[in-house]
Write a structure and sequence with these properties.
By secondary structure, the chain is of the alpha+beta class. It contains ten helices and five strands, in the order E-E-E-H-E-E-H-H-H-H-H-H-H-H-H.
Length: 199
Amino acid sequence: MIARLKGLVDSVSADALVVDVGGVGYLVQAASRTLSNVAVGQAVALFIETQVREDAITLFGFAAEAELAAFRALTTVQGVGGRVGLNILSVLSPDQVAHAVAAGDAASLARANGVGPKLAARIANELKGKLGGVAMAAGAPLPVQAGARVVDDAMAALAALGFRPMDASRAVAEALAELGEGAGLNDVVRVALKKSAKP
């Protein structure tokens, strides 16, 4: 199995790139975030997930181990294949995926092409509690478990103030990390707003 590729970018398309390693070109599927940061002729090193099917061997490439870990977790969910996993990582970073799952924020996951409301809810449900390592690897604060009602109400309050679901989820997670599990709604919203204030 191929675990890593290091070489020169030979070509880039909408959903893949070809990496030239010693004269051999490897076709690697990648998220748009990864593809937007590479150019033909550039040296590149990618972490690789190799999927073997009866009719094909497909390589999926990632710039960071956290992305690879998030991809592996996502593709354990029924209905999330390699392409859909990449679509999710095209719109959300690994720590954003972890925060969305921890907060039950299916709306953020559903922003990805090919992810409807039902699949987004399944991802959030099945991966709950399984992405802590991804968040740590990405340097994100780990959300503290708190009463689901407080989290939901705080998210709703921030949404009413114009926050996007992903930003609200992150702000609430950071507030809970500071305040602790028994925090009340007013305190969570106050600290979340403070942490989200632009300097």
